[in-house]
Amino acid sequence: MVKALVLLSGGLDSMLAAKVLMEQGIEVTGLSFKSFFFGTAKAKKVAEQLGIKLIEADFTEEHLAMVKNPAHGYGKNMNPCIDCHAMMLKKAGEYLTPALSFVRRGGKTPLSKGGEGKYDFVATGEVLGERPMSQNREALDLVEKISGLTGYLIRPLSAKLLNESIPEKTGKVIRGKLLAISGRSRKPQLELVKKYGIKEFASPGGGCLLTDPVFSEKLMKMLEYWPDCGGNDIELLKHGRIFWLRDDKNKYALLTIGRDEKDNQELEKLAEQGDVMIKFTEDTAGPTSLLRIKNYELSITNETREIKVPNELKISKLKLGEVKSQEEIINLGLILAGYYAIKERGKRVRMEIKLINNQ
């Protein structure tokens, strides 16, 4: 039986690509990737709906290294789609049958992977022209070349508009049963939804944080201030209000203030050696805040302080970008944390300052 490995994002297009192949009697397995910017939750639901197996691959560290310096640049936001797609496809190629993997890797010994040796080709839900920058003909050809999958990559929804693959030429896949969808209109896909009786599917986009303009702006600043940032640093951007402060050693400090109970809990989990945690005492409800200065030892004593929370606060007047002493940074952390405890504005509150020491 012919076996295909289909990249499942969790969106409608990849689901339809799988259905088109399954309609030919091809055995389909899904492949979904996990990084610091997207996960596999949606793909799991799609795989269950399709009744197929799903391989979940974690490439968080390798993906982050690429995001910091993508060879082919970013899209509208911080999304390096060409390099990201090529990386996924290159990983997918490691699961091809040994003979194909041997040829594809230039005669090198195939990698030893849990699913290697099972699949005849790789497929995606990409549609020609659906995304002007990353799915035009030039970009699709470039991704295929970089991935090393030339001849063994099929895009079922637009296949008739693209070069004929080796599986099509050898009769493993019937080209006449593949499609010729192009452009940004979703009408052809919605017609397929009716044809296949699909009752539930995710809206296009929204699965990758790198396409989100607000998150992208936060990440751009982090890469500027902390070019050596790691996954834990990036997680902080997801769990609160973000403030950058500059100390008198010209080091940038990140202050993250939780927006709700979930953020508060996550910040507790993310705290690392040398971080400063700012919390309200047990008799007062308010946000948890985490202060981090990378590669620098803070001179902080654990203590409880009482402050007067301002009724009004203009962030611009705080001059966050100006050089400040460690004491001024701590005080700003207290003021900002107090201000975002809305019910406590105008009151005197007590907050705990704790230097994290995991040793």
What does this entry look like structurally?
This protein has helices spanning 12-22, 41-50, 60-68, 81-93, 98-104, 137-147, 166-169, 187-196, 213-225, 231-236, 261-270, 326-339; strands at residues 3-7, 27-34, 54-58, 121-123, 153-154, 241-247, 252-257, 276-280, 289-293, 303-308, 323-324, 348-355. It contains twelve helices and twelve strands. The relative contact order is 0.11. The protein has two domains: 3-209, 3-Layer(aba) Sandwich (Rossmann fold), CATH 3.40.50.620; 212-355, no CATH class. Mean pLDDT is 90; it is low at 107-116. It is of the alpha/beta class. Helix 4 crosses helix 6. The longest helix is centred in the C-terminal third of the chain and has 14 residues, at 326-339. The strands form two sheets. The protein has a seven-stranded mixed β-sheet with strand order 10-12-8-9-7-6-11, with helices on both faces. The protein is elongated, with a radius of gyration of 25 Å.
Q: How do the helices and strands line up, and which of them pair or pack?
A:
Blueprint: E1 3-7, H1 12-22, E2 27-34, H2 41-50, E3 54-58, H3 60-68, H4 81-93, H5 98-104, E4 121-123, H6 137-147, E5 153-154, H7 166-169, H8 187-196, H9 213-225, H10 231-236, E6 241-247, E7 252-257, H11 261-270, E8 276-280, E9 289-293, E10 303-308, E11 323-324, H12 326-339, E12 348-355
Parallel strand pairs: 1-2, 1-4, 2-3, 4-5, 6-11
Antiparallel strand pairs: 6-7, 7-9, 8-9, 8-12, 10-12
